[in-house]
Structure formats: structure tokens, C-alpha cells
């Protein structure tokens, strides 16, 4: 069906049906943050084990639609093992992908090569055409971003 | 109130939804595919006569009401007050000129009630009884009151089909100062046994409040028979404009209540450090009211009266029956339908979910078929928690919906199910 393929790429459906890093981490020691989308009732909880240098482990729990769940799943893969700075870089890239980054933060994504470099995350680009669903895609990322702020405050 | 007589067949109705659609300009706009609007529970569409009434008022008669002595202002006031009488008569108000208060929507009407009763009538420790299926509009204002006044909230429970459980009603209502509940659930579609509950509540001396937002658009309401002291409903779900809501109250209750908002029009006199409230209903209408919207709502009431509310209720029942049958036939055990199984116990809407497809995704795929349904928590998060879901999809109906709309819904749902299987 025309239009649908842009939104529901195979990668998205795969991550929705088989979410990666789904579950919980014992908290504490894991850092934990809950996010809600009051419009649709979606809920996500992100757990992060920070070893002092990098994100040693990350898990996500909660309930949501295919976009919100797959976006959370893709996020955990993209940031696992990353340093604080690297993880913030991934967030910037993701926001640029959805045209949400502030001008000075926008990461150029113009060529197919840029897109390839994003890996599976690029599958979320189609969400741009469905503005109502952008909040679904960003829920886990905003929730995760607040954990990074928390880590930042302790360094 | 309660259940209405059986209405077996759409073909036996006194009006044809296809003809009705022609009165609603939104259905004749150019689109890729025809509009299948199944979200009237959130907000209905409105007929040309309502739009014309508001447009005509602005073009020919606008001036502020209750103020000017010039002819134009008097004409504006006359139109505004004529709409008040019309709306009051529509719900059988014994004293429509005094008992009908205009607000912004049901939410504001219910906030007015909670705030006003919270100033003098309710005190710390007093019991307010609600149900577990209230819209946030009839729940959060009472939670707010509980947080700053210390009132206690209790809830009438319901069974797995969303029917209120009345076994312990006496125990629950004993000592209640306020009992406030919906006449028809915006999620489950349940028509509640409101009058029965009101009778018991009154025997304990409680003030009884009805949220009729989902009831008034679909069924005849007569406040003389209902047994409520105060009733809230909104214009935009009953073919009227947004921005106008109604509070009806019996004279005794309204007279005992202090004003909610202060300002112009709600006063009889003001001195530097004191004021005297105006008479009913103006004491509850501070500031310039939504004049055009009230006149538009009056035109909506004319439209509904012209069709006849009993005929509209018959259509509601018929479409509910056929939609439940067709959805059950097609999807069987793969779909979960919330609320009463018997169509005669429900009104207006059907909430549902598929096991493996999130309501948001259902709604998205339906949208590509031109089918508009609501997906979300329907402003009833406590109920959603109890149902064990974050969200449901909801198809809701009004007079312009016919069997073709139901078929379009079923086909689009089948597509959504295929896509995510």
C-alpha cells in the first residue's frame, strides 16, 4: 500500500516484533528513567549501566506502538558500548534524521552514504512524513537523553 | 433511562444517513477517498445550518450581550437567550431561562461544579463517589479538590463487561456528599443505570452530578426524569460548535452554589472590597460568553429535534448492533472488544484492540483508507490501567454513519491485521 512502506519499513516491523535489549536491569545500580506520551498512553522505561567510561548495558521496557517500540530497540543497539560523547552524537544524528535538531546541531545527512553510515537507524527516516508519529519515535530517545544528563552531572 | 427497546434494522429507520451526510459539508469536500468519519465520540461534524447560524449572527447581529441599550445589542441578547431556552427545552429543563449555564465545554462545567461545591459545601473528610470509568474531566477536578481540601474519593466498580456493580451501592453511597458519574462511558460505551444510582444517592442526601457528554448526542434526555441535580454536556459532540458547553442544574442546587469565575456579567454589584453575585444563570457566566457558539448550538438542537432524538437513538442502536455483528463475524477471537456484549446496553462507540497490533498502528493504516478512528487512552487512564492496556482503538458513530462506513472499517481493520501478522 502506497505510503505505508515509508513508515513501516521491514526493519521497523522486525524490531517491533522482536525488540532488542528488551527487559530490565537492577536499579540501582542501573540508572532508570520513565517516559510517557500523554497523547497516546505509550510508556517506556530505559535502564542504563554506566561503567564510568561507557554504556556497559542498556535495556528498555514498557508498551507502545510499532514506531515507539522499534525506535527504542534501534536506539539501544546504537548507543550500547558508547561513551557519553558518542551517545550524544548518536542522538544528534537521530534528531537530524527526523529534522528535529537545532540548526547548529544538525548533522548533515544528504548522500546515500550518509544514510548507510546510520545503519538500521535510517529506517526511521520515513517517520518524517507522518508528523503525528514523530512523538512516538522520539519518546525513548528523550527518556534516554535525560539519563545522559544524569550521568553528565556525576562526572 | 437504562436500556432502550430493540431496534433490529438500519433499513427501518426514519432517516437515511446517506441523505443526512449531504447536510454536512465536510463529507462533500474533494478528497482522494471518501471520508469515513468514525470519531464523533471525540467531536462530531456539524451541519450547514449550524455554520450558517453562526455566520449569520456575526454578519448581521453581533454586539456584546447583556450590556448595550442599542437595538443591535438587544437583538444579539435576544438570539443568545433564545438559544438558552431552546437548549433548556431540549433536555426538559423546568426553568430553562435560569437553569441553563453556558461554559466552554463539559470539562469547564465539571470544574465549575467541583470548584463551587469545594467552596463551602465540601469539607475535609467528606466523601465524593465516582466510577472507575469516568473521563478525566469528571475525575481530575475531584482529585484536585481532594489534594487541597482533603475530601475522600470512592469509586463504584464495574464488571468485566464494563457494567457498574450495584451490589454494595448502599455501603458506597452512605455518607456521600457528592455522587458524580457518567451517563454513558466514552470508552466502554456503557449506558450506566444513572437514575437508579441517583435515587440511592439522594436517600443519603448527596448532590448528584451527571456527565452527559456522550449521552446527550445520542439519546433523548429529560432532566426531570433523570434524577440528577447537576448535568454537564458539551456542544461539539452534538453537532454544535466547539467552545460552548452546558451546565444544567435544578434551581435549589444552583442557588446554593457560589460563583466559579469572577468578572463582568456575573455580578449584581461591586464595591472596592466586596461584590454581590448576579442572579441565575448569569452568576456563573463571567465575561463575554461564546455568543456565536451558543447560537450555533441552538441551531444544532433544532437539527436534532427535527430528526427526533428517539429516531436518533434508534439509529445509534441499529449501527451499534450491525457494527458489533460485523466486527465479531470477521475477527472472532482475534479482536478484543471492550464494554457490554449486548448492543442494547451501549451507545455511541466501540473500543477494541488486536493482540499484536498497537491501536496507533491500527489508526495509521485505517487513515490510509480514509477511515478516522481514535487511538489512545481516551482521557481515561485509570480505566486503561484496569483494562491492562496503554491504549485502545475506538470507532464512534453518529447520525451520518451508515452500514458502508462499518464495512469500510472492517475492511481496513482486516488490512491492518494482515500487515502486522
TrEMBL record, chain A:
GO terms for molecular function: iron ion binding; iron-sulfur cluster binding; transferase activity. Pfam families: NifU_N. Its EC number is 2.-.-.-. CDD domains: IscU_like. One of its GO terms (biological process) is iron-sulfur cluster assembly. It is an enzyme of class 2 (transferase). Residues 8-136 form the NIF system FeS cluster assembly NifU N-terminal domain. Signal peptide: none annotated. Keywords: Transferase. NCBIfam families: SUF_scaf_2. Belongs to the NifU family. This is Zinc-dependent sulfurtransferase SufU. The gene is sufU.
UniProtKB/TrEMBL annotation, chain B:
Keywords: Pyridoxal phosphate, Transferase. Gene3D superfamilies: Aspartate Aminotransferase, domain 1, Type I PLP-dependent aspartate aminotransferase-like (Major domain). CDD domains: SufS_like. Residues 36-409 form the Aminotransferase class V domain. Signal peptide: none annotated. The keyword Protein biosynthesis does not apply. It is an enzyme of class 2 (transferase). It catalyses: (sulfur carrier)-H + L-cysteine = (sulfur carrier)-SH + L-alanine. Pfam families: Aminotran_5. Its cofactor is pyridoxal 5'-phosphate. GO terms for biological process: cysteine metabolic process. The keyword Protease does not apply. InterPro entries: Aminotrans_V_dom, Cys_dSase_SufS, PyrdxlP-dep_Trfase, PyrdxlP-dep_Trfase_major, PyrdxlP-dep_Trfase_small. Its EC number is 2.8.1.7. GO terms for molecular function: cysteine desulfurase activity; pyridoxal phosphate binding. PANTHER family: CYSTEINE DESULFURASE, CYSTEINE DESULFURASE 1, CHLOROPLASTIC. Belongs to the class-V pyridoxal-phosphate-dependent aminotransferase family. Csd subfamily. This is cysteine desulfurase. The gene is sufS.
Amino acid at each position: 500500500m502506497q505510503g505505508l512502506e515509508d513508515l513501516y519499513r521491514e526493519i521497523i516491523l522486525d524490531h517491533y516484533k522482536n525488540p532488542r535489549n528488551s527487559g530490565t536491569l537492577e536499579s540501582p545500580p542501573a540508572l532508570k528513567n520513565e517516559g510517557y506520551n500523554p497523547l497516546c498512553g505509550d510508556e517506556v522505561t530505559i535502564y542504563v549501566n554506566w561503567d564510568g567510561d561507557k554504556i556497559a548495558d542498556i535495556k528498555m521496557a514498557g508498551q507502545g506502538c510499532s514506531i515507539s517500540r522499534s525506535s527504542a530497540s534501534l536506539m539501544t543497539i546504537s548507543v550500547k558500548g558508547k561513551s557519553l560523547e558518542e551517545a550524544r552524537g548518536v542522538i544528534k544524528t537521530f534528531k537530524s534524521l527526523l529534522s528535529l535538531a537545532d540548526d547548529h546541531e544538525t548533522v548533515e545527512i544528504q548522500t546515500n552514504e550518509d544514510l548507510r553510515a546510520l545503519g538500521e537507524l535510517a529506517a526511521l527516516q520515513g517517520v518524517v512524513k507522518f508528523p503525528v508519529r514523530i512523538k512516538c519515535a522520539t519518546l525513548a530517545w528523550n527518556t534516554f537523553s535525560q539519563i545522559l544528563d544524569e550521568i553528565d552531572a556525576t562526572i | 433511562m437504562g436500556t432502550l427497546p430493540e431496534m433490529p434494522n438500519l433499513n427501518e429507520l426514519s432517516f437515511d444517513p446517506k441523505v443526512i451526510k449531504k447536510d454536512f459539508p465536510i463529507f462533500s469536500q474533494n478528497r482522494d477517498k471518501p471520508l469515513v468519519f468514525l470519531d464523533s465520540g471525540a467531536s462530531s461534524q456539524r451541519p450547514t445550518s449550524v455554520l450558517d447560524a453562526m455566520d449569520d449572527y456575526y454578519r448581521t447581529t453581533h454586539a456584546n450581550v447583556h450590556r448595550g441599550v442599542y437595538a443591535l445589542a438587544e437583538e444579539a441578547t435576544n438570539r443568545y437567550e433564545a438559544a438558552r431556552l431552546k437548549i433548556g427545552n431540549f433536555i426538559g429543563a423546568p426553568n430553562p431561562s435560569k437553569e441553563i449555564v453556558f461554559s466552554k465545554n463539559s470539562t469547564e462545567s465539571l470544574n465549575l461544579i467541583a470548584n463551587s461545591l469545594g467552596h463551602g459545601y465540601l469539607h475535609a473528610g467528606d466523601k465524593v463517589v465516582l466510577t472507575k470509568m469516568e473521563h478525566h474531566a469528571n475525575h481530575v477536578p475531584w482529585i484536585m479538590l481532594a489534594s487541597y481540601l482533603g475530601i475522600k474519593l470512592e469509586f463504584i466498580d464495574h464488571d468485566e463487561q464494563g457494567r457498574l456493580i450495584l451490589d454494595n451501592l448502599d455501603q458506597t453511597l452512605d455518607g456521600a456528599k457528592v455522587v458524580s458519574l457518567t451517563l454513558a462511558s466514552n470508552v466502554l460505551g456503557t449506558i450506566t443505570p444513572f437514575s437508579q444510582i441517583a435515587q440511592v444517592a439522594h436517600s443519603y442526601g448527596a448532590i448528584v452530578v451527571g456527565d452527559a457528554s456522550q449521552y446527550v448526542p445520542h439519546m433523548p434526555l429529560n432532566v426531570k426524569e433523570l434524577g440528577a441535580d447537576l448535568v454537564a454536556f458539551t456542544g461539539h459532540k452534538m453537532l454544535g460548535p466547539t467552545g460552548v458547553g452546558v451546565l444544567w442544574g435544578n434551581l435549589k442546587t444552583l442557588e446554593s452554589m457560589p460563583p466559579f469565575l469572577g468578572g463582568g456579567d456575573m455580578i449584581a454589584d461591586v464595591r472596592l472590597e466586596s461584590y454581590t453575585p448576579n442572579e441565575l444563570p448569569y452568576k456563573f457566566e463571567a465575561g463575554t460568553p461564546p455568543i456565536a457558539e451558543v447560537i450555533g448550538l441552538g441551531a444544532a438542537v433544532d437539527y436534532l429535534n427535527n430528526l427526533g432524538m428517539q429516531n436518533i437513538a434508534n439509529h445509534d442502536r441499529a449501527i451499534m448492533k450491525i457494527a458489533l455483528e460485523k466486527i465479531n463475524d470477521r475477527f472472532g477471537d482475534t479482536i478484543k472488544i471492550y464494554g457490554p456484549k449486548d448492543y442494547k446496553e451501549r451507545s455511541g462507540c466501540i473500543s477494541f484492540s488486536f493482540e499484536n497490533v498497537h491501536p496507533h498502528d491500527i489508526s495509521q493504516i485505517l487513515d490510509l483508507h480514509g477511515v478516522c478512528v481514535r487511538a489512545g487512552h481516551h482521557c481515561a487512564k485509570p480505566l486503561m490501567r484496569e483494562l491492562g492496556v496503554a491504549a485502545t482503538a475506538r470507532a464512534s458513530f453518529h447520525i451520518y454513519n451508515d452500514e458502508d462506513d462499518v464495512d469500510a472499517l472492517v475492511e481496513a481493520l482486516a488490512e491492518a491485521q494482515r500487515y502486522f501478522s
